[in-house]
Amino acid sequence: MITRKNLYTIEHIPGKEIQEVLGYVKGSIVQTKHLGKDIAAGFKKLFGGEIHGYSDMMNEARAIATERLLQDAESLGADAVVGFRLQTSSVLGGAAEIIAYGTAVKFKD
């Protein structure tokens, strides 16, 4: 089973030799907060400071996108994902897309 322990931002893992590159894997989500949180965030902009509702939303979205990436890698029989990256884009006011991506690999035994 592939887990977060098998997720690397680097391309080469010390002590491991890549046997096979299985290919590109990804996970994504578009997420938004409900209207009440969005209105509260609007008031927060007037006074400054962290908008905790959006921070929480983004943390949750990153976790979901990462889990979907790991599921994609596991479906290919991967031992790990190298070159792991996260990308964020705004879809519309209050909604964000998170994409987690990398390269699924198998290690030599």
Can you summarize this structure?
The chain is built from two helices and three strands, in the order βααββ. The protein has 109 residues and is α+β, with helices and mostly antiparallel strands.
What number is the mean pLDDT?
86
- Main sheet: which strands, in order across? 1-3-2
Strand content: 35-45%
Order of helices and strands: EHHEE
| Computed CA radius of gyration, to the nearest angstrom | 17 Å
User: Got a strand count?
Assistant: 3
- What name goes with the CATH superfamily? Hypothetical protein apc22750. Chain B
- Helix/strand class: alpha+beta
CATH class bucket: Alpha Beta
CATH architecture: 2-Layer Sandwich
**Parts with pLDDT < 50 across at least 5 consecutive residues:** none
| Tally of helical segments | 2
